[in-house]
């Protein structure tokens, strides 16, 4: 039990951040994290040898994706917090909000499979191998999704219009 | 100079700081020679920094009580049978309900506590929520009168939850009869015809204090819990995961009395 507290507790802030970045609604995100932690507590003995970080993110990710699919199937969607407090919390300054709201809005335009990989790798510092485990895809798929995600986000940032569906990245190599 | 060609994967690993020092040096040298690629990689590095900075404050927020791990562990240890029951119920519902009936006899031995409360709320929801003529007896415009009335009958100070932030508007409420005495029922509407019911009543001896548990029946989802002798149940035609934050909100407001 103590072992679990020591290993899981420090990761809760990161789990909240990932959930909030995905669902963009504070209450719904914390709810997912609560479910994730309840599962983690009940399945602690079955976690296997891999990294606890990857294991927890996998539980959370699967809950989030299940919810997206259910909501989509039932024609429901979680309300996106209109105010930036939903993303940043009270701690963030006004200046901070204005500055970073934009990049999050652009991230939100990416397809789910691109957003998730970018968040896991670039924000949550999962290794490519751990991200592959969380997403249940081969590492090669992680790399190609990551590449597409970055190209697409860059197009959003640079204001390239007219390509809303499949974006063919301009690859200068490979 | 380069023994292995620099690949797209190397460039991303460079952005993410995932390369061995030697390979990192090789990639850096390659970027020096290819300013167009360096520009693109620089933009990816900027993206990474912007995302991290934008999301960093979330991790600094104080944890809400629901996410305190020691509390989650403690609740599970204290109420193992309830947790297992809830998990079994969710599992059977997700399978399709058929399996759930095989456990029906076992689970339905004279419901008490939260299970009884949830069933009563479900019954009230099924009767009153579809009612187009008079779903509530006292309208929201007379909510002061409503609160006075139900508080008197329940012998408890009852507060009407405000669910405006969740997109639900109070329609009003009424007193309903249950096996365990009078209960207050409040009904909400999201202006698109979707209705929710919050029911509260004093708990008998069982479950004076109980953590929030899912209590779905058929396609009516619900959550029930009890604080200091007052039981609460939220039910509605919605996905349990959509209802849960609303239930958390009701609980939060009730605790502020």
Q: Can you offer a commentary on this structure?
A:
The complex is a heterodimer of chains A (174) and B (257). Helices cover 67% and strands 0% of the residues of chain A. By secondary structure, chain A is mostly helical. Chain A has 2 domains: 1-81, Rna Polymerase Sigma Factor, Chain: A (Orthogonal Bundle), CATH 1.10.1740; 93-161, Winged helix-like DNA-binding domain superfamily/Winged helix DNA-binding domain (Arc Repressor Mutant, subunit A, Orthogonal Bundle), CATH 1.10.10. Chain B is elongated, with a radius of gyration of 27 Å. In chain B, helix 1 packs across helix 3. Mean pLDDT of chain B is 85; it is low at 104-109. Chain B has helices at residues 8-15, 21-33, 35-60, 69-78, 80-95, 98-102, 104-107, 113-128, 143-154, 240-254, and strands spanning 138-139, 169-178, 181-189, 195-202, 210-214, 221-227, 230-236. In chain B, a hairpin with a 5-residue loop joins strand 3 and strand 4 (195-202). Chain B folds into 3 domains: 8-60, no CATH class; 62-109, no CATH class; 111-254, 2-Layer Sandwich (Phosphorylase Kinase, domain 1). Chain B has a 7-stranded antiparallel sheet, with helices on both faces. By secondary structure, chain B is of the alpha+beta class. Chains A and B meet through helix 1, helix 2, helix 3, helix 4 and helix 6 of A and helix 1, helix 3, helix 4 and helix 10 of B.
Write a brief caption for the model.
Chain A is 67% helix and 0% strand. Chain A has helices spanning 2-8, 12-23, 26-43, 52-73, 85-88, 94-107, 112-123, 128-135, 139-157.
Distance between the termini of chain A: 48 Å
Q: DSSP helix count of chain B?
A: 10
State the oligomer: heterodimer
Total of helices of chain A: 9
Largest interface, C-beta closer than 8 angstroms, per-chain residues: A-B, 63 and 51 residues
Average of per-residue pLDDT values of chain B: 85
**What is the straight-line distance between the termini of chain B?**
73 Å
């Amino acid at each position: 039990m103590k072992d679990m507290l020591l290993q899981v507790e420090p990761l809760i802030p990161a789990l909240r951040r990932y959930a909030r970045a995905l669902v963009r609604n504070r209450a719904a995100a914390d709810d997912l994290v609560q479910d994730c932690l309840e599962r983690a507590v009940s399945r602690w003995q079955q976690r296997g040898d891999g990294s606890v970080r990857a294991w927890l993110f996998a539980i959370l990710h699967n809950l989030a994706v299940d919810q997206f699919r259910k909501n989509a199937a039932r024609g429901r969607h979680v309300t996106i917090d209109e105010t930036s407090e939903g993303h940043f919390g009270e701690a963030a300054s006004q200046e901070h909000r204005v500055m970073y709201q934009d990049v999050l809005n652009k991230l939100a335009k990416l397809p789910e499979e691109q957003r998730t990989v970018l968040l896991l790798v670039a924000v949550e510092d999962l290794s490519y191998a751990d991200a592959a485990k969380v997403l249940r895809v081969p590492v090669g798929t992680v790399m190609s999704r990551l590449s597409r995600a970055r190209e697409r986000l860059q197009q959003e940032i640079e204001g390239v219009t007219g390509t809303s569906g499949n974006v063919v990245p301009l690859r200068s190599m490979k | 100079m380069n023994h292995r060609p620099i690949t797209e994967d190397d460039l991303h690993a460079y952005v993410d700081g995932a390369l061995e020092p030697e390979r990192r040096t090789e990639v850096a040298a390659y970027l020096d020679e290819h300013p167009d690629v360096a520009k693109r990689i620089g933009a990816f590095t900027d993206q990474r920094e912007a995302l991290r900075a934008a999301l960093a404050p979330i991790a600094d927020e104080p944890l809400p009580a629901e996410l305190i791990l020691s509390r989650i562990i403690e609740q599970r240890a204290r109420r193992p049978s309830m947790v297992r029951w809830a998990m079994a119920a969710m599992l059977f519902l997700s399978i399709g309900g058929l399996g759930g009936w095989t456990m029906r006899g076992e689970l339905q031995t004279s419901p008490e506590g939260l299970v009884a409360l949830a069933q009563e709320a479900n019954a009230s929801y099924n009767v009153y929520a579809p009612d187009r003529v008079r779903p509530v007896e006292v309208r929201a415009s007379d909510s002061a009168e409503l609160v006075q009335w139900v508080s008197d009958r329940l012998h408890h100070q009852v507060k009407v939850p405000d669910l405006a932030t969740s997109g639900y508007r109070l329609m009003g409420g009424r007193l309903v009869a249950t096996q365990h005495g009078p209960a207050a029922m409040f009904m909400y509407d999201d202006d698109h015809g979707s209705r929710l019911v919050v029911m509260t009543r004093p708990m008998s001896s069982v479950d004076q204090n109980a953590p929030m548990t899912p209590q779905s029946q058929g396609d009516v989802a619900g959550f029930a819990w009890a604080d200091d002798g007052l039981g609460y149940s939220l039910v509605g035609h919605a996905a349990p995961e959509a209802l849960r934050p609303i239930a958390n909100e009701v609980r939060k407001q009730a605790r502020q009395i």
